[in-house]
Amino acid sequence: MPELSVIGTSHKTAPVEVRERLALAPGQVAAVLAAMHAEKTFDEALVLSTCNRTEMYVVPRTGADPLACLLDHAARAKGAPPAADAGIFYRHDDAEAVDHLFRVAASLDSQIVGEHEILGQVKDAYRLAIEARTAGFLLNKLLHAAFRVGKRVRTETDLGRGSAGVPHAAVELARHIFSDLAGKTVLLVGAGQTAEAAARALLGCGADRLIVANRTLQRAEHLAADLARGPLGVCEIEDDGQAATCPEMVAQAGAEANAPQALVHRPKAEAIALDGLAEAVARADLVVSSTGSDEPVLTWAALAGPLARRDTPVLMIDIAVPRDVDERLGELASVYLYNIDDLDRLVERNLSRRRQEVPKAEAIVADEVEAFGRWLASRQVAPTIRLLQEHLAAIRQAQIERYGKRFCDADRGELEAFTRSMMGQVLHQPLSLLKDVAADASPGERLATVDLVRRLFGLDALDDDEP
Fold it and tell me: What are phi and psi of 179, to 5 degrees?
């Protein structure tokens, strides 16, 4: 039985309409983990759910089926069966599972390689597992190693240089439809962080009017005021005098000391409730939507008429999973509709730069996977017993050499027998404990016990494979 498994699906194995049936909001992830904890389905479990992937990392128990468990609990959390073909799921065990998580944390497995959001999403998933008490010894060690991998890739490579995330893609899409963003109106539907970042990028690159629509009007008013006063995205001017695509959102407009120039302006902004969407869509040039609703918010019934009467194009960027925009609206002549699966081909320019850094990032991942494998091997019972016996035998021999000269030859045999017996007594309890956990304990309990024994006797100093 493997000690660690991951079961999941992602943009590589399933289209957005399938992934959205499995996508879990943070509250739903918490519910799934709480149920697993109560049922003791696995020794340890963590669920990572983003718009591009839903994965479950587990330290399994005998007989537990991770895929069946994920589908069952996801169905309960969402209140509907997440019908899915088993062929869209992948499973990795042990070293392959470690490699997969490290690649995810390094953003090598992302739809947009080098994107910054995934490491924070992994940390959020870990926090939920900690709160649900489903992250034990092995997942704690594994996730902290994954965080280190993500940090190393960020600091030791240029994999994340430039913008290739959703905000960048929003600007790329807008420039594909409009020759100039100046004077354009952005409608932001929902108050999600990703959609907000995309709106900041569009406003920072020339759009000068903002409408924020949200289920809670007060939240919309607060966000509209915040976006109107900045900080906005910064749109750099390249050496040839042409506006480049917007880089990552900066802490404050124009704060990048090495940016050649920055186009920064303050847009006009207003807030509306969701029941005003039809009128707002009629005025908007760009719509960015990410509400977290289980049903489309921008519906055919409400918007087909107003959009069909338009004589100017409208760009609709649906970032939500499940989708916010009825896909039939994209069939209208005036509508250019994109969802999250359309982003990859629109960021090829920056991705080509990032690809040059992929081998460096992969080398870091391989190095860390090897290190974690060595550490995990060191936490097995048999090598720990052998190292403990060798360590105490070396201590015994050193003491005999130090004090043996004080004894006559006739007593040396007694000294040997006495120290051997004493070492046997010292070893008896830890060896019994290690043999017991090898026979009966769960993988997490066994690893934690071995780790305790190694730290108690200082064995890591002799076998330095700590991850």
Answer: -75, -25
pLDDT of residue 233: 53
CA 383 → CA 33, 229, 376, 390, distances in Å?
Answer: 34, 62, 11, 10
Name which of 53, 39, 76, 75 is nearest 7 in CA terms.
Answer: 53
> By the 8 A CB rule, do 341 and 15 touch?
yes
Q: Does residue 183 carry a pLDDT above 80?
A: yes
The DSSP line for 105-124 is HTTTTSSSTT-SHHHHHHHH
Residues ≥6 apart with Cβ < 8 Å to 240:
none
**Residue 210 pLDDT:** 92
390-440 pLDDT tens trace: 888 888 888 888 887 787 777 877 888 888 888 888 888 888 888 877 777
Q: What angle do CA 239, 245, 249 make, to 5 degrees?
A: 115
Please tell me the predicted confidence (pLDDT) of residue 352: 79
Residue 51 catalytic? yes
Cα–Cα distance measured from residue 202 to residue 200, given in angstroms and rounded to the nearest whole number: 6
The active-site residue out of 51, 69, 205, 235 is 51
> What domains can be seen in the chain, in order of their start residue?
5-161 (3.30.460.30), 166-348 (3.40.50.720), 377-461 (no CATH)
Asked if residues 232 and 200 have their Cβ atoms less than 8 Å apart, the reply is yes
Partners of 44 in the β-ladder? 59
